[in-house]
Amino acid sequence: MALRSLAIRKAIGLGKSVGLGLRGLQTVTLPDLPYDYSALEPAISGEIMQLHHQKHHQAYVTNYNKAVEQLFQALNKVDTSTVVQLQGAIKFNGGGHVNHSIFWKNLAPVHEGGGEPPHSSLGWAIDTHFGSLEALIQKMSAEGAALQGSGWVWLGLDTEFKRLVVETTANQDPLVTKAPTLVPLLGIDVWEHAYYLQYKNVKPDYLKNIWNVMNWKYASDVYQKECP
Amino acid sequence: MAAAAAPTSWLTGQGLGGRSPGFQFPWRSKEKLQRKYTGKAVYGQISAKFELKPPPYPPNALEPHMSKDTLEYHWGKHHRAYVENLNKQIVGTELDGMSLEDVIIVSYNKGDMLPPFNNAAQAWNHEFFWESMKPGGGGKPSGELLELIERDFGSFDRFLEEFKSAAATQFGSGWAWLAYKANRLNVDNAVNPFPSEKDKKLVVVKSPNAVNPLVWDYSPLLTIDVWEHAYFLDFENRRPNYISVFMDKLVSWEVVSKRLEIAKARATKREMEEERRKKEEEEENSEDEAVEVYVDGDESESE
Asked: Origin, by domain of life (chain A) (predicted)?
């Protein structure tokens, strides 16, 4: 894994530290996966993981940095119309980076706890809000399957009311665009690129199998931080 | 997967509503489209099931630019699913028996889409998409189409830039279109000025998910599918490459020209009908000398 991350760093030409652009503009970098590309098989193929990480996520990072650089310049020149015009690219690519960074942490190989149901406070909260873990899984899978086009399905925590919610967002909109008080615990990418090579158009199978590599531990940690 | 022996001509009777390659754009009068979709079962209606029409070429005909695998999945699984699910959704409802374009307009519901919209529009979009391509396609258009492109975009290259950019910047899933825009104010009490050539022009538009320009009353002439399933097997995430290959090697400009002819003819016909209707109304009004005057306490005179 170290060799691979070295290769990635070389390929994208950025150090592990935050890149510095003009006058201290900070850029984002592609995070490493905490596991090998093939570690999530057979739920998600190594081919998909590699493409998804090295091509798609990388493209969001690159384009976000480009857009932010242009934004910086436009702000300095007080070029308001360009500032406004860049918002679409920033939302899309920035959202893509935010969402995928969470997504990689949402997944874990089976031998590292992927698929193991949540215990402690999150498990209890799920039972209270949804009746059972199975009910939650069914609900999220159904919402994911029903989503037309590209988007995400989320298990989120409403930090204001301390309540769990299932939400969907379109394209690369992060969960906060639904409500600023929402914190994502788990997200499932239902863009076609997330499953197409392996599952083709049978999205429901992807949504069934991904639970086998779901990293509930991450979700629990986030939950416990917000609801100590 | 039965895509092996696709017919070489477009027109084999039953397509989606048995249309000719020129398509019928929804130049319907407003009255016809007042039908509301209530989802209630209507008994005694003949079920006009939509059919999945194969593309006008076999699945390997577009290689190496669009692979046989893509055609088989995109047409054989995705497009087929839209058609089959649409039929299931509308059978026995008020939409059953309507033409596909009418189903689209009614279920679009001015933006508050009803459930059948996605399947109906995607079924239409995909048939339109297959017919927009041909083996050995690409190159440049000619004749009137080229003239209009040069008039409305400045040059063919500028049009190409705009179209490719629209296709590349449709975030998420959707379509990019070249359309003929010949509509006017769409409110009941608008008095439209006599249409001049300036009202009618070619435009490039993009739309998300299943939306298409029929719902804005434009005449689509060309489309490219930018849902990931359209290019993922052949191009992975390199959408701009897919778009370039589509424009350089796949577009059937003959079909686009044909569609333009039909769109123009329809627009003219519609204008003439509107003129005729306006004249009739004027004549009706001028026959009566009496004019309705609302005065407190008096009865209004009837026409």
From this structure: Eukaryota
